[in-house]
Specification:
The protein is mainly beta. 0% of the residues lie in helices and 49% in strands. The termini are far apart.
Length: 223
């Protein structure tokens, strides 16, 4: 196939059965000249360009015109270029008008997902770092966070409490700790995971001495 390679604004798009077609024209003038033009791109990736804004800025199409036939062979939209940030060789990014964006970081073998909290505009981040071997989830300005390593999990709030689980056990740090439940069992009583009997001898005492009564819900035993 031979023809001319031209550029135009993408005025509108539609998607039918997963196939995206576009209307081409001049967004500043609000005039179109080609309808239902097929968009050729990378296989496995389907996207609809953003519509023009009120100032007449629009996504652009690089298209092949062969007589009355036209096919879009490339698109770009520089309105969102600043959301990409710094890219190293081999990096990939997917951005759009909203806050949500996707990054593939080549040197770190990392996938990074980012968006912002709808009401507060605070960042929300998921970073899957292959080189570091860690998954990090960060939410808000606090922030609250979860870090998952190959042999440990830590979750908490910056400046507040944290919970760490690793091969050495479970550690809770913070200003206070509360277990709000019908029964609290510290240590093993007849097998890991088995509930204690109704009134074991290792029930915690309640009340001031000497009138101490055994608790029916809090139990302590050594492993």
């Amino acid at each position: 196939m031979s023809g001319d390679i031209l550029t135009a604004d993408i005025l509108a798009t539609e998607a039918t059965d997963g196939e995206v077609r576009a209307q081409l024209g001049d967004a500043a003038l609000g005039k179109g000249f080609a309808q239902e033009v097929a968009i050729y791109g990378v296989d496995g990736f389907v996207g609809r360009p953003n519509p023009p804004d009120a100032e007449g800025n629009a996504a652009q199409a690089l298209y092949l015109q062969d007589g009355d036939d036209a096919q879009i062979i490339g698109t770009r939209d520089n309105r969102w270029a600043d959301k990409v940030g710094t890219m190293d060789e081999g990096d990939r990014a997917i951005v759009s008008e909203g806050a949500a964006r996707f990054f593939l970081r080549n040197e770190r073998d990392a996938i990074v997902l980012y968006t912002e909290h709808g009401t507060e505009g605070k960042g929300m981040l998921l970073d899957i770092g292959g080189v570091e071997g860690e998954i990090k989830i960060i939410n808000g300005a606090g922030p609250s966070f979860i870090t998952i390593g190959p042999d440990s999990i830590t979750m908490g709030v910056d400046g507040g409490g944290t919970l760490t689980i690793d091969k050495d056990g479970v550690r809770v740090t913070g200003a206070s700790f509360q277990a709000v439940t019908t029964k609290v069992q510290l240590g093993d009583m007849g097998g890991i995971g088995k509930p204690p009997p109704p009134l074991p001898v290792n029930a915690c005492g309640i009340g001031a001495s000497p009138a101490v009564a055994p608790s029916t819900s809090v139990f302590v035993a050594g492993l």
